[in-house]
Every structure is written in C-alpha cells, then in structure tokens.
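User: Let's play a game. I give you a shape written as tokens, and you guess the letters that built it. Ready? Here's round one.
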C-alpha cells in the first residue's frame, strides 16, 4: 500500500473545491454541475460531461471521487462515470466494490482495453483516489507515431496498471483527426447519468525527457 499523495508546490490545481471556473462543458456552456460546501463537485445527471480548460501532454494526475450507493443496480449501471486523460483515454469510474476479478469495464480499467491488476475499490460513499502517471504518444518529425501512450495507475494506494501501453483512444471517443495526438488535451469528467462526486483534482506537468548532460556540480 502506497502512502497518500500530497499536492506539491508546482502542481496545477484543476479543482480545489472553491470554484468551477476552470471547467466547461465541451460545447463551451458554463458548468451545470453543483459546487458543494464540503469542497466537492456533484454530477448533475444529463447536463453533460465537463472538461478542464487547462490542457496537458505528459503529466502526473491526482483526483478523488465518490460513488453513489446503488444496491439495486448491477454492472455498468452501478454509479458510472469516467476520467478521460487528454479527453482521449478513459479510466473507468464505477462501484465495483467486492467483485473478485475486475474486467475491462470495471472501476480502474482503461475502458474496454486493459483490466486492472486487482480490485482496489472501497465501498460506495467512501472517497477514493486515483494517482496516474501519463505519458503521451511520441511522433517523428514526419508525424508518424513512434511510441504509444503509456500509463501507470495507482488506485487507493495499490498499483492497478504498471506502465501499460495504449495504441488508440478508448471506446466512446469520436474518431480523431490525423493529428489528434500531437496536441495537448483536457481532462474530462464523464456524466454517464448517475450522481457521483469529485474533489481535490490537480496535476504536475512532466518533461518529455530527462537531461542527457552530466555536468560537474559545485554542491
């Protein structure tokens, strides 16, 4: 179990519980979700998904979510939402608590592509945490893709994806234009018709590569 993540000084704060000004609906409408007194945002079903105004390439993302308790529902109808990196790659949000073998549509899955290594879900109505290392795809000078996107996902302190490779957007995203991956993208939080809550969302932009120099040091 990994320790809880504290927000570093160089983090870009996407949501700190005080305002929804950093977000919009994809059609540029002001956000219709609720800002609550406890510092969270609440999905208002059927108002539509929201995206961050901030866009990113490589990053480390932290966010927290809480699922509704829907004991009479099963499968994809059990408190469904999703977190889309660059508005392209969905990490599923779902009440999958207690399921022995999580699949490609369950909480923590890279939707319809990679199942989580283990079920790290807490029960509904408990706050849960995603910590995600995201590396965007790489392209040659001629815009030919030479590396796929990669992700490492820590869910409630447990590693559920270990540097997995993703060759295309996940299901549910529209077909991208030819140059889609060359551009940064926003974070999307999905309205799938259920009430869920999000809070404490921030990211750290990561450099494309480390230095290859080995200069002498005076320290």
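Assistant: Ready! My guess for every position:
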């Amino acid at each position: 179990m990994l320790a809880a993540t504290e927000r570093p000084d160089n983090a870009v704060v996407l949501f700190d519980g005080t305002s929804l000004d950093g977000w919009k609906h994809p059609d540029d409408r002001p956000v219709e979700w609720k800002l609550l007194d406890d510092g969270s945002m609440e999905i208002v079903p059927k108002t539509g998904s929201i995206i961050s105004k901030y866009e990113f390439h490589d990053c480390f993302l932290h966010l927290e979510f809480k699922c509704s308790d829907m004991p009479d529902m099963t499968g994809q109808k059990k408190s469904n939402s999703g977190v889309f990196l660059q508005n392209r790659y969905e990490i599923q949000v779902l009440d999958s608590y207690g399921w022995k073998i999580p699949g490609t549509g369950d909480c923590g899955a890279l939707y319809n592509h990679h199942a989580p290594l283990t079920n790290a879900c807490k029960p509904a109505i408990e706050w849960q945490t995603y910590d995600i290392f995201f590396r965007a795809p790489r392209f040659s000078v001629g815009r030919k893709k030479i590396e796929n996107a990669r992700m490492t996902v820590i869910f409630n302190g447990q590693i559920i994806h270990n540097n997995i490779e993703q060759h295309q957007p996940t299901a549910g995203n529209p077909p991208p234009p030819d140059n889609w991956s060359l551009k940064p993208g926003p974070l999307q939080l999905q309205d799938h018709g259920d009430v869920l809550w999000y809070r404490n969302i921030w990211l750290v932009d990561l450099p494309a590569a480390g230095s290859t120099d080995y200069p002498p040091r005076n320290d």
